[in-house]
Amino acid sequence: MGCAKSAVFSVADILRDHVRTLFLDGDRARAAAHILACRTGRLGGHCALCDRCGEIHYGYHSCRDRHCPTCGHLDQALWAEAQAQHLLPVAYFHLVFTVPASLRPFFAGVGRELALKALFAAVSETLQDVAARQGITLGVLAVLHTWSQKLTFHPHIHCLVIGGGLTASGFVHRRRFLLPRKALQLVFRGKLLEKLQVLHREGHVQVGRHSGYELLRDASRRSWNIDIRRPLHGPRQVIDYFARYTRRIAISNRRIQSYDGQNVVFRWRDRAHGNRQKLLRLDAQTFCRRFLQHVLPPGFVRIRRYGLLSNRLREGAIQRCRELLDADPPPAPTPESRAAACLRIFGRDPGLCPTCKIGRLVMLDRWYVWPAPTLAQVVAARPLPKPP
User: Fold this and answer.
1) For the whole model, what pTM was predicted?
2) What range defines the domain where residue 182 resides?
3) Same domain as 48, residue 92
4) What is the pLDDT of residue 304?
5) What is the pLDDT of residues 144-159, one digit of tens each?
6) Residue 68 in contact with residue 372, Cβ under 8 Å?
7) Would you state the pLDDT for residue 384?
8) What are 22-47's pLDDT values in tens digits?
9) Same domain? 167 vs 137
10) Beta strands in the chain (DSSP E)
11) Per-residue pLDDT, 176
12) In sequence order, which residues have a C-beta less than 8 Å from that of residue 202 and are 6 or more positions away?
């Protein structure tokens, strides 16, 4: 009863053939097991009866893992709609905070969770501290990405920033971004280097065969890039982009063009050449390793809010901003079931009988598998038959 159309090739197909050859830690093995078990019957299923034609329909449960490229399409759409409720009638800006390549080992090895938290803290403190110098309180929605278009490891944070903020005298905003790029670059570099140096000195992070202090010195000598753009189609464009990765990582199944059992070809966009779309060919093992390196630690929060958009301040702060801007709030969303939301957003009614297209499905039974199977169990098991 999913709401999204299936792709011809999937990440699960590739993992199923090659995950045995990979050495995975517990987090990545767990995510791989969920992806492989998703909608296969390994997690249980349900059966429903059409009240019109009497046909019985079976379906298998999805894994609902936040790394799975098959799950969560409805959740992504509902998340985007929820964020749109907080938009103000002012300019918004899309900022991308990128770290130098020499610092990437800090975010990939032992202690990566602490390093990623330090990255979030450096970004939020940079924006809020530079804004505070002008007496402004900003609103920031920040999302972590750890991948490039080629699936290589590339940690960076996307931010949707309100193009204005609260001051002692009211709400200030303008079409150009309020904060100077140079100041943001210098403050961000100083804050992140300081935080990583403390983590390295206290032994909380390990950078493998590299010298941590040499990596920090190398990064301190480089210029740091912060991309600042005003979205051409407004803030909802950025929210929709963020929403794609609230329930998946790195790549969608739709980008996979072909898979012959040994090699994978997928689409990617070349940012250096006008965002042109190209094809990349990788052997399947390399593809699997690149995909699974982006699995986050359990419980790690990938989407965070700061300032006016923080959970503690958001409701009252946004209401105050609208009063100062003399702006009406958007219409309140009408409460609805997930089935109704699926019909409204995707045009598909999951309660409609797929055979006669008239009757309604009445649930007869559900069954669950708990605990979820491990990677070894999923790989060793024979394929289950498809639902009749």
Assistant:
1) 0.90
2) 86-250+298-325
3) no
4) 95
5) 999 999 999 999 999 9
6) no
7) 62
8) 999 889 999 999 999 999 889 999 99
9) yes
10) 44-50, 56-60, 92-98, 139-147, 153-162, 164-167, 170-173, 226-229, 256-259, 263-270, 276-283, 303-307, 361-368
11) 86
12) none
Distance in angstroms (rounded) separating the CA atoms of residues 4 and 348: 9
* 72: three-class secondary structure by DSSP: coil
Tokens of 217: 């010195």
Is residue 286 situated within a structural domain? no
What pairs with residue 57 in β-bridges? 48
**How far, in Å, CA of 28 to CA of 206, rounded?**
19
Task: Clarify whether residues 207 and 131 are in a common domain.
Answer: yes
Q: What is the pLDDT of residues 164-219, one digit of tens each?
A: 999 988 999 888 888 999 999 999 999 999 999 999 999 999 887 778 899 999 99
Amino acid identity, position 25: D
Give the DSSP H/E element, type plus range, for residue 287.
Answer: helix 284-292
User: How many distinct helices (H) and strands (E) make up the chain?
Assistant: 12, 13
Q: Can you tell me whether residue 133 is helix, strand or coil?
A: coil
Same domain, 187 and 242: yes
What pLDDT is stored for residue 294 in this prediction?
95
Structure tokens at 282: 């990788």
